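Thread: Newbie trying to understand structure tokens

Hi all, I'm a second-year student working on a class project, and my supervisor (Dr. K.) asked me to get a predicted structure for one chain before our next meeting. I've only ever worked with sequences, so writing a 3D structure as a token string is new to me. If someone could post the tokens and maybe explain what I'm looking at, I'd be very grateful. Here's the chain:
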Amino acid sequence: MRAAVVDVGSNSIKLLLAERGPGGLLVEVFSETLEVRISKGIGSDRPLLAPEGIERGAAAVASLLSRARGLGADRIAVVATSAVRDASNGGEFLAKVQSACGERPRILTGAEEADLIGRGLTTDPSLAALRDFHVYDLGGGSLECLSFRDRAVERAVSLPLGCVRLTERFVPSGEGPVPEAALAAVSRHVKDVLLASGFPFPVPDGRLVVGTGGTLTSVRAMAAAAGGVALERTDPLIRVARLREILAAAAALGLGARRATNGLSPKRADVFPAALATLIALAEVGAILAFHHSVRNLRWGVAAELLG
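---
Reply by user tm_fold:
Sure, no problem. This is what the structure looks like when written as tokens:
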């Protein structure tokens, strides 16, 4: 039995094709990511998906589902998160996708999204020994915050702190370096929202903080490119001090130079500085020294749900 999950995010649309392996472990058969950014305008008071974003997104979903069906997918789920959830015309996107490929996406609530991210993380073999830990998943539209106790979600909060949203709101458009004042504004806003929400919790000794999402994946991809190795061979423990170094270097570059950075997707280059500033602000509020990166977030949780 193979499950195909298409995750429609603000910045990218991703496919995971998975099945149960020996011992019931969830294993990847195939994956693909398309950087299409359907969410331009998400930073406004009244988010609206642009017609071209809807078209790009529907075409991307159709393409990924065609690939999944060709690889023998038995069960299929298309899920949408913050970009579609918050858009006043999200229904138009759902109808367009259904027309294009015969599948109507399921819009996840913030609580459902957080819960499925947590379920996905519990399929990660590298986290199998963890019982109590915190998880932060940074996407384009939202930041999902979870606290685990005895491997079950104890508390979950979804906050509107995604990197596309904050870039649109605080970072001037243009080809130049990112002003320090813009990054400071991102940091202040993130801290205010986190403190108002009750997250993050201070990290007690021995409790690991897990980080997921495209920003930390990009940091590891940059390390992999620099070392000439596969991403899986890089250290999953990403120290906050290293994030500060990367932010200082990235913000000093113009957009063109950021797009040329080895390991960083050119389509993430504009939101990368705000994303790093968000993670650093989170770390400063929560007394976090490092994030243990995992790729097993939302898609893996939905796949586990499909396969039982």
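A couple of things are worth pointing out once you decode it. The chain has eleven helices and eleven strands. The two ends are 11 Å apart (CA to CA). Feel free to ask follow-ups in this thread.
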